[in-house]
Amino acid sequence: MITLSAIKADVGGFVGHSAMHPDLEATAQEELERARQQGLLVDFHVTHCGDDLFLIMTHEHGENFEAVHRLAWDTFVKCTEVAKKLKLYGAGQDLLTDAFSGNIRGAGPGSAEMEIEERPSEPVIVFMGDKTSAGSFNLPLYKMFADPFTTPGLVIAESLHQGFSFEVQDVVEHKKITLNAPEEIYDLLIFLGAPSRYAVKRVFSRATGEIGACSSTDRLSLIAGRYVGKDDPVCLVRSQGNFPAVGEVLEPFSVPFIVEGWMRGSHHGPWMPVGLKDAHPTRFDGPPRVVALGFQLANGKLVGPRDMFDDPSYDHTRQKANEIADYLRWHGPFEPHRLPLDEMEYTTMPVIAKKLAKRWEPLD
Ligand code: F6R
Ligand code: MG
Ligand code: MG
User: Fold this and answer.
1) Residue with CA nearest ligand 1 atom 14
2) What is the mean pLDDT of residues 284-296?
3) Which atom of ligand 1 is least distant from the CA of 285?
4) Confidence band (pLDDT; 50, 70, 90) for 225?
């Protein structure tokens, strides 16, 4: 069995919150290379999307393995030291606890892990978001694994025809439910359509029970109790055979659907699919980006990556995203560009509400 672990954090931006300084990636590269030589990791790939550092790792130790989580934490701490020396912006911002206590979950960084029996050929897509939240993968995961207009394989391929089950987490009450597509899609969509509260954690093939996808559901604001930066989630998706084809997995991103995040983590904006060379959001700190790196696993080796959205067939999506961005920006500080009030709870809203509390008067 091979475990694919993607663990990510924003430990300092260059310049502002827009991108990653190469010294941080070089530091992470050194740390993970040492762990690979010592035998903890089979392979790894260090990369970034915007100001977030992503550690994509393979190993044989299963999910939630302390030494792997510790490696990620220690790597982020080392990178924070480098970020502090360079006075990069927001050095160490996602490291919310002072000391590592055995598991990266609840400590700030986002993580998605899946233990798999590697197939004779194992194509995997790693999606990385910036300037957006956990839950943003709900819509594309639904489309990939439950919508026959996106994935014709659900209709015409025997291996997919039994459908998929979705493990959905309630990120506020810390509980989960598993719902089956296609029979329960109306129940499923009640939850998935509210991604700030409910997030797809895992998707399973109902024909074989195999895991098909896993996403990070860690919400920084809920851990910290205030706004400390956006979650910028990661999602792992297996492809081909018993799973959607690569083109079916990527297809939901051909429309720049609206996600929460963007400037100050407090706005709705279009999610723009880009190649790595364009994963550096600057317009109003955005618009939010998503990168898709494709790998073939070979006995745990990460053969790749292929930069899947670095393709002219997404040019019109990017163009449309820019148009939507203009349109939403026009609304300035008004909803629905600005997030609804309950999401503002984690920003300056409580401070302002407290300051003005005494100035409210009863109606005549
Ligand atoms: C959004 C993001 C940025 C910052 C903004 C203000 O996820 O990271 O939009 O929120 O640049 O940053 P601070 O408050 O650090 O000055
Ligand atoms: Mg940042
Ligand atoms: Mg970020």
Assistant:
1) 264
2) 98
3) 9
4) confident
Helix axes 138-146, 185-192, angle to 10 degrees: 160
Output the furthest CA–CA distance in the chain (Å, rounded): 74
3-state DSSP helix/strand/coil percent for the chain, to nearest 5? 30, 30, 40
- 346, pLDDT greater than 80: no
163 CA → ligand 2 middle, Å? 38
Q: Rounded to the nearest whole angstrom, what is the distance from the C-alpha of residue 88 to the centroid of ligand 1?
A: 13
Query: Residue 361, class by beta-carbon neighbours within 10 Å (0-12 exposed, 13-18 middle, 19+ buried)?
Result: exposed
CA 31 to ligand 3 center in whole angstroms: 22
252 preceded by a cis bond (ω within 30 of 0): no
Tokens of 129: 């978001």
Neighbours of ion ligand 3 (CB under 5 A): 10, 50-52, 130, 232
Task: Output the average pLDDT for the chain.
Answer: 96
Q: Which residues of 102-134 are buried (b: 16+ CB within 10 A; e: fewer)?
A: eebbebbbbbbbbbbebeeebbbbbbbbbbbbb
- Active site (catalytic) residues: 10, 227, 230
Find the mean pLDDT for residues 29-47: 98
263 Cβ below 6 A of ligand 1: yes
| pTM for the model | 0.97
- Centroid of ligand 2 to alpha carbon of 189 (angstroms): 31
Q: Is residue 131 in contact with ligand 1, taking CB distance under 6 Å? A: yes
Work out whether strand 272-273 and strand 289-298 pair parallel, antiparallel, or are unpaired: parallel
Buried b (16+ CB within 10 A) or exposed e, 149-173: ebbebbeeeeebebbbbbbbbebee
Q: Which of 10, 89, 285 to mutate to test the pocket of ligand 1 (most atoms within 8 A of CB)?
A: 285
| Alpha carbons 293 and 307: distance in angstroms, whole number | 5
Q: Where are the beta strands (DSSP E) in the chain?
A: 2-9, 43-49, 52-59, 110-116, 122-130, 164-170, 175-180, 198-205, 211-215, 234-238, 258-261, 267-270, 272-273, 289-298, 301-307
Q: Which helix H or strand E contains 70, and what residues bound it?
A: helix 66-85
Q: What is the mean pLDDT of residues 278-303?
A: 98
